Amino acid sequence: MGRAQSFDTAAAVRCARQVFWETGYEDTAIPALESATGLNRSSIYNAFGSKRGLFDAAVDSYLDEVIRPLLLPFTASPVAPDAIVEYLGRLRSAFLNADSSASANGCLLINSANAPIARDAAVRETVAAYREELRAAIGRGVAAHRPGHDPNANARLADACTAMIVAAFALTRVDNAAALQCIDTAVQLLDHHT
């Protein structure tokens, strides 16, 4: 009979998530994960199968605990007219706060899309699904903000805003001012088209 697991799996995943978010999958060493989670290598492998298994759990945790709570206002029925403006304002505040993970590290999934792990089909699918989830949420926000406007124009505006958000997450590590400008551009696009 195997020994019962004596650690909080969700807490360990959150700790590992932060390491992957800061350093990326390839540059995250097992000793760094041991240090962050307080688990030894054998416990990590017994619980998650591999470093990759822990990364996959961290990505699921990131989506469920970081991304989807931010997108929750876009799932309301009806979506509030200012939901998109408030969302962009929260992103801007996060990018302005140098201590926030969003400002310091960007987006775990966008970072992964630009790393060697993106060659893995499952990672590509996860990143593509995240981008589509983001685009659908932004689309609902734009439609609620601009009721009665041409749906095709709203769709193009949602595409542009989504691109600005993705660009902001990709840029913040190297040029925070440019990331902020991307968010400001998305807000200006909304204002210009309202």
Automatic annotation (TrEMBL):
Source species, domain of life: Bacteria
Domain HTH tetR-type stretches: 6-66
Annotated DNA-binding residue span(s): 29-48
Pfam family, one: TetR_N
Keywords: DNA-binding, Transcription, Transcription regulation
Gene Ontology molecular functions: DNA binding
Key word Transcription regulation present: yes
InterPro entries: Homeodomain-like_sf, HTH_TetR, Tet_transcr_reg_TetR-rel_C_sf
The keyword DNA-binding belongs to this UniProt entry's keyword annotation: yes
Gene3D superfamilies per record: Homeodomain-like, Tetracycline Repressor, domain 2
Coiled-coil zones: none
Stated name of the protein: TetR family transcriptional regulator
Lineage of origin: Bacteria, Bacillati, Actinomycetota, Actinomycetes, Mycobacteriales
